[in-house]
Amino acid sequence: MTKARPLSLITGASAGIGAAFAHALAARGHDLVLTARRTDRLEAVAHALHGQHGVNATVLTNDLADPHGVEQLCAALDERGLQVDWLINNAGYGVPGRFDQNDWPVHADFLRVLVTAPTELAWRLIAGMRARGYGRIVNVASLAGHVPGSAGHTLYAASKAYMIKFSQSLALENLDAGVNVCALCPGFTYSEFHDVTGTRALVSKMPSFMWQRAEDVVREGIEAVERGEVVHVTGRFNRTVKGLFKVMPDRMALRMSAKQSKRYRAQDAGE
Looking at 93, 156, 190, 264, which residue is catalytic? Predict the structure, then answer.
């Protein structure tokens, strides 16, 4: 059963979808654990949440690219006696450019943050959820995980496809345990993601109907995991895109992906 004040752990909580999750869950009466690399940004979010909603917001600065990052994060939770009821695996970023033009440590860090860390967090926390008979896990994937991979940002779509399949299996394993798992799949979302990857100029040319606010993505995600939906693509436009690619022949889908990706992905270093 739901606790009176569930505790939510949100990775990548300093901005964008992560911060939007923090505000939405605080509004529902959740206490929070916020983690990311930028302490000052996390503390600002925590201060705002406490002032607006009166919830407890614990800041645990952590770098999930560190091979021991998840272990250290969970040790900090244990030291404080914090039992996580909602896990929001949101931390993520993109690596622009062609695969061979980035050093391997860059790719290794990316895979730890977007694949290994969320998987390990689920593994470390789900046993407690099962024991208490209640839990929610939202793995922030992407529409990119449903469509063909594209040139540039080589590992991004692959990592998101993994999160979708992982969420499906985890959900099936916990059907009768009171633990709901959902892969949340937004498309283009207003955030600083594209500023970090250096593709703001490219994506700013995309029409407005292709974009969603982070708050709307989060609202759909919370509603989806609560009703037990395992994979949720946000927004009517994104669901239409997913449906089209699902019925399109692979060769045609790859050609379309190649054409469209030039509009929003840097394919070569320096582009």
Answer: 156
